[in-house]
Design a protein that fits this description.
By secondary structure, the protein is of the alpha/beta class. The chain is built from eleven helices and nine strands. The strands form two sheets. It has a six-stranded parallel beta sheet, with helices on both faces. Strands 7-8-9 form a three-stranded antiparallel beta sheet, with helices on one face. It binds adenosine monophosphate (AMP). Adenosine monophosphate (AMP) binds next to α2 and β5.
Length: about 280
């Protein structure tokens, strides 16, 4: 695996590979890799000629300085895992490379998408995500971009970013959430859960799955209310549990819409998110 630290060198390398007719796949991450990330790398590896992964803990998407400060960094282990999964290129830029001093930060017209759900609890988060992903795509110029459905709203926002920046030639692959045996969605933040909280954490998936299993349109408010109550009893501080339209992310108004149930809740000082498609 080649490790490249500057955008200029990465673009040079990619253009050379493209001139050989290679199909470029790209998996952006913030590191502290787990099986969820690796499933993206494996699929990218299988579907493309060149698998490129990036690790960059993007400061502009953290609306909470403490969360950024505590974000796990396990770079040596990450590199070993990427090598074991046959990743071809790791792009490892530093902050100055991504955001040169005195550089301007773009804003993107994401409409309502950046104000609902995650956006309403994490103001500015999706602008930050777009600032990083836009820069990474500019350098990587992939044919296929791999994202996890675990971050459901992020997938929709990045789809919008591709339209806004005229990158409709990039194919977007949204892959299923990889879970622990308990159902808990794998996440880098799980590393920060204490033992007792790790035992409670799978309740988040359990209540979402319960809603899916017992769903009836006329019972939806009741089911959402019950889910929140169960999470509170399990020790969570709930931000939202909502049943929303898969594309617009606004609460469903009729049963014909394609639906996803999404949730965010704090447990032991750690913010967890999850979603299940109905
Ligand atoms: P992150 O490092 O958290 O920014 O995540 C990088 C990519 O991995 C994003 O596209 C995430 O949606 C995806 N991802 C994170 N956790 C999982 C998971 N448990 N299953 C599948 N994909 C995931």
């Amino acid at each position: 695996m080649v490790i490249i630290k500057t955008g200029e060198k990465l673009t040079q390398f990619i253009l050379q590979q493209k001139s050989l007719g290679k199909k470029i796949g790209f998996v952006p991450t913030m590191g502290a890799l787990h099986k969820g990330h690796l499933s993206l790398v494996d699929t990218c590896r299988n579907e493309c000629d060149l698998a490129v992964c990036s690790i960059f803990v993007n400061p502009t998407q953290f609306n909470n300085a403490e969360d950024l400060h505590n974000y796990p960094v396990t770079i040596e282990r990450d590199i070993e895992m990427l090598v074991a999964h046959d990743c071809d290129v790791l792009f490892l830029p530093d902050r100055e490379e991504m955001y040169p001093a005195n550089g301007k930060l773009e804003t993107y017209n994401l409409g309502n998408l950046e104000h609902v759900l995650e956006g309403s609890f994490r103001p500015g988060h999706f602008q930050g995500v777009c600032q990083a992903v836009d820069r990474l795509l500019h350098r990587t110029q992939p044919d296929v971009l791999y994202l996890g459905r675990k971050d459901f709203q992020q997938c929709i926002v990045i789809e919008k970013l591709l339209q806004l920046t005229g990158r409709t030639n990039i194919a977007l692959r949204k892959l299923d959430t990889i879970r622990e045996d308990t159902g808990l969605a794998m996440s880098s933040r799980n590393l920060r859960l204490g033992i007792a909280d790790l035992e409670q954490a799978p309740s988040l998936y359990r209540v979402l799955h319960h809603i899916k299993a017992h769903y009836r349109f006329d019972k939806r408010h009741e089911l959402l209310h019950e889910a929140k109550e169960q999470l509170k009893q399990a020790g969570f501080d709930v931000e939202y549990v909502e049943l929303v339209n898969e594309k617009t992310l606004v609460p469903v108004r009729n049963d014909a819409e394609t639906k996803v149930v999404v949730a965010a809740a704090w447990l032991g000082g750690i913010r967890l998110i999850d979603n299940v498609q109905l």
